[in-house]
Amino acid sequence: MAERVLVTREIPEEGLRPLKDFEVTVLSEKIPERGELLEAVKGAAGVLSTLTENVDAEFMDAAGDGLKVVANMAVGYDNVDIDAAQERGVVVTNTPGVLDETTADTAFMLLLAAARRLGEGERIVRAGRWEAWGPKMLTGPDVWGKRLGILGFGGIGQAVARRARGFGMEILYYNRSRKEEAERALGAQYLDLDELLRTCDFFSIHTPLTEETKHLIGAPEFEKMKTEAVLVNTSRGPVVDEAALADALAEGRIFAAGLDVYEEEPKVHPKLLELENVVLAPHIGSASIETRDKMAVTAGEDLRAVLRGERPKNPVEG
Ligand code: DGY
Q1: Distance, CA 240 to ligand 1 centroid (Å)?
Q2: Do domains 4-97+289-307 and 100-280 have the same CATH topology?
Q3: Whole-number pLDDT of residue 10
Q4: Atom of ligand 1 nearest to the CA of 286
Q5: Span 127-146, mean pLDDT?
Q6: Which ligand 1 atom lies nearest to the CA of residue 234?
Q7: What is the mean pLDDT of residues 220-240?
Q8: Dist CA 278 CA 160 (whole Å)
Q9: What fold, for 100-280?
Q10: What distance in angstroms lies between residue 105's CA and the mean position of ligand 1's atoms?
Q11: How many other C-beta atoms are found inside a 10 Å radius of the C-beta of residue 4?
């Protein structure tokens, strides 16, 4: 009998093709209720999850002893309890690489939009409040030629650096470990976090969310930044202390921010919603048609590999 696979949300069709030999249940496009999820996962050998599902010990136990693999359709896997998976012998996979360029596009889009006040401008035009061109209207800092500090210099951070080179930016980065090959290839320079914060004009965050990176950027870090600084976050919301960011923006301690991710998605800190100098996107970093197809296929293929007893391409190694 074919093994059971649960796909926790509707995903691009491409991702279901590798799963055609299994008995597949696909839940709806909406985020499933916890109870529905725990019921649906019973007896599953494989789960294709997304970042909105909390894949914890309770969920794995609800699946039962037959659960072999959780393929998370995201590069981030902070929604999966890796220790609980390892204790139960469940392989976890993610989708690195395929979304680097698309997410870097989003980061750069937010960086430009925040610096050049696109959100504010759009709101003025749509509200019929635009009266005329103005010599001082909606001016913001130049992006080209400035110093960009990249926090987290993995695939996405490096893809942002490639874009920044086209804008003649100076590329500085902070990472857990030095990336010397990438430094040479991209003309990037490593700085410790303190110096990066004090000297850069723009910041783009690309670290995974871990215990160490939670609130990596908070009130003390905003104090160190220049008042013209622009911060972009397309990684995970909790890497930035959202309340501290809202205060820093409201008090003019930094110039602007562009956010794609939030501490308690889909909630956004109410103070941020009131501010003009922040561009707010609804976690669409990887949301190109092509990339979402690739993410779904990557997850589907790895799930199939594990159920066939093969090694998946993207195992998450705790
Ligand atoms: C990820 O992959 O982790 C993104 O946040 C969603 O694409």
Answers
A1: 16
A2: yes
A3: 98
A4: 7
A5: 98
A6: 5
A7: 98
A8: 20
A9: Rossmann fold (3.40.50)
A10: 14
A11: 21
Handedness of CA 314, 110, 281, 173 (dihedral sign): positive
* Protein residues whose CB sits closer than 6 Å to any atom of ligand 1: 51, 74-76, 99, 285-286
Closest CA to 250 of 224, 221, 220, 270: 270
Nearest ligand 1 atom to the CA of 236 is 5
Q: What is the pLDDT of residue 1?
A: 85
- Cα 294 → chain centroid: 16
Domain positions in the chain are 4-97+289-307, 100-280
Q: Which two tokens stand for residue 168?
A: 């003649």
Write the CATH number of the domain with boundaries 4-97+289-307: 3.40.50.720
Residue type, 15: G
CB atoms closer than 10 angstroms to residue 105:
18
Cα distance from N-terminal residue to C-terminal residue, the chain: 32
Total-model pTM: 0.96
